[in-house]
Design a protein that fits this description.
It is built from 6 helices and 11 strands. Strands 3-2-1-4-5-11-10 form a 7-stranded mixed sheet. A 4-stranded antiparallel sheet has the order 6-7-8-9, with no helix packed on it. Helix 5 packs across helix 6. The chain is globular and about 50 Å long. The termini are far apart. By secondary structure, the chain is an alpha/beta fold. It folds into 2 domains: about 180 residues, Rossmann fold, CATH 3.40.50; about 50 residues.
Length: about 260
Amino acid sequence: MRGQPLLAPGKVRRVTSSELWTRATADRYDAEETEMSSAAVLGPTLDFLAGLAGDGAALEFAIGTGRVGVPLRERGVPVAGIELSEHMAAVLRRKIGEDALPVAIGDMAATAVPGEFTLVYLVYNTISNLLGQDEQVECFRNAARHLAPGGRFVIELGVPPLRFLPPGQVAVPFDVSERHLGFDTVDVLEQILVSHHFTRDGDDGRYRRGSSRHRYAWPAELDLMARIAGLELERRVADWDGAPFTQDSAKHISVWRKPN
């Protein structure tokens, strides 16, 4: 499902454990994520992020094809991005020019971009693409380096589905629909979750199989990473509409603040 894209001659880049998107995967990404790009999903997301950005600029880690960054820029928030996959960034570039939304190709745990930001954000579980705890800590530190005093770092991340695992079971389904079957297998010792996808490809009954690895982390672990980076927890909610975060929440939106 994923592989490493070719680099331009002489180009040097630190690559983390994150798996890289192929050109084919990047080209079909938007078509397969129509629900996540719908007004019902994006509206509250953009409201939340624009409110935190205020009159300042925003930096999106793992900006991908611009599902969030492009419409946030269209709302008048200056946006820059960091993206590991050149193929994903190429899809974004078909939508908006470099002058309007600059994107640095590199590792979100280490890459620096010019400027100071009132908001750094990382959505749709993407911090879990960093497969080691040290790399996730460095991601927090990189966010803190880019933030102005008083700025915020926002993460959207699912809660690990461990309570759905009875003894002896290692797989949890997360989607059973006409065109897609998805389930996660969990290694609780290494905190690694592998998402398996069987996606119907056309109308001839064939399914395309793919998988991706993720390191899951509990909210309390992320709070400790934030403290290491000099950030303070300001708010945690269950969704972009601001519903209270409870023990039954499937995901969380967490906001950490850089002290003045």
